[in-house]
Amino acid sequence: MATTQRYDVKDMALAAEGVRRIEWADRQMPVLAAIRERFERERPLDGYRVSACLHVTTETANLMRTLKAGGADVVICASNPLSTQDDVAAALVDAYGISTFAIKGEDNDTYYQHLEAAIDHRPHITMDDGADVIGILHSTRREQLGDVIAGTEETTTGVIRLRALERDGKLGFPVVAVNEARTKHLFDNRYGTGQSTIDGIIRATNVLLAGRVLVVVGYGWCGRGVAMRAKGMGAHVIVTEVDPMKAIEAVMDGFPVMPMEEAAKVGDILVTATGDKSVISKRHFELLKDGAILANTGHFNVEIEIPALRALATGTRVAREFVEEFTLADGRRVYLLADGRLVNLSAAEGHPAQVMDMSFANQALSAEYVVANGATLERKVYVVPKDIDDEIARLKLATMGVKIDQLTEEQAKYLASWDEGT
């Protein structure tokens, strides 16, 4: 279709393929589809501008379609330079009339130009995956803070940043931490990240996991998922942690837990999932086995100290697409996947649509929630309201054909009382 939308995508000729893939994902996202049908009738977002900074994938495209169906004026940019699917970006502009600024492999300057383009939209609602839009609004574009009713945040790394802003009393508007919804972190982070991270590693390297030692750095919900899936494929999984509660959980789940200095000596594949920086650093590179593979599934490419690895290397080359080989002074070779960026979105397609169905249902319903309640919300980080979380779980079960029991009136009364003993 002809469009007057502002955009910056790789190739508009890719749009038809993008539409086919978006439609395929939509068939796996019945909860979001049901919300979109209701949004088309009720138009709860009419008149509101939304600036989204998310991974531009088929699943995200269906979220953008849902927001637009609800009446929102939507602009989207990429939340990671390597996570864009170029055919999807073209389809969003050409087929769905949504301004899109995203090119897979864009350089740092282009990445930030795209962020600025999304902020130029003067959003009433921000929708972040990593808090980059919110970060710019709170630094160089503070004059726009008053325009924003509220924001939403998709990922752990972004929530960490936002809680720091709140703690320092500097958060300029309320934000709903979609990442903290149970229907998000229990499923997206565990099952989605678990499967898609392994998918990215295998697509990039074509290595056999069975029999390999795979080190999971960080045992949060994402790390749990990676460990579970790697174990299921026959890998010998080791966990490293700094949190004693998570460490003991990993032990109880049957995984050896050790310091990074010990794990670095024995790991064939090391996967970071912490949200922190330099968790694999220079001192660890010096201990790695010849042929060790490094991958990251955290949001930013700071978890592996890449500048230190480059400084140690006597030579580098591209071994395969998304695989860079570093030769060290003693002849050992170390392989870095996808420049240390999210391997599941850089070298693969990200989470399965069935998982993102719940995560993006949370985004859509949270946008509706902040429009309805923004005037009463304080400048704080909020969790997704329990009734939204429960409704998404209920809808998902229904689409899967799963039925569950309901409390009887007597049972509900018993659970709410204190005066009935044994």
From TrEMBL:
Pathway: Amino-acid biosynthesis; L-homocysteine biosynthesis; L-homocysteine from S-adenosyl-L-homocysteine: step 1/1. NCBIfam families: ahcY (TIGR00936), PRK05476.2-3 (NF004005). Substrate binds at T57, D129, E154, K184, D188. The keyword NAD applies. Its cofactor is NAD(+). This is Adenosylhomocysteinase. NAD(+) binds at residues 155-157, 189, 218-225, 241, 344, 351. The lineage of its organism: Bacteria, Bacillati, Actinomycetota, Thermoleophilia, Gaiellales. Binds 1 NAD(+) per subunit. Its EC number is 3.13.2.1. The gene is ahcY. It is an enzyme of class 3 (hydrolase). It catalyses: S-adenosyl-L-homocysteine + H2O = L-homocysteine + adenosine. GO terms for biological process: L-homocysteine biosynthetic process; one-carbon metabolic process; S-adenosylmethionine cycle. Gene3D superfamilies: Adenosylhomocysteinase-like (3.40.50.1480), NAD(P)-binding Rossmann-like Domain (3.40.50.720). Signal peptide: none annotated. GO terms for cellular component: cytosol. Belongs to the adenosylhomocysteinase family. Keywords: Cytoplasm, Hydrolase, NAD, One-carbon metabolism. Residues 189-350 form the S-adenosyl-L-homocysteine hydrolase NAD binding domain.
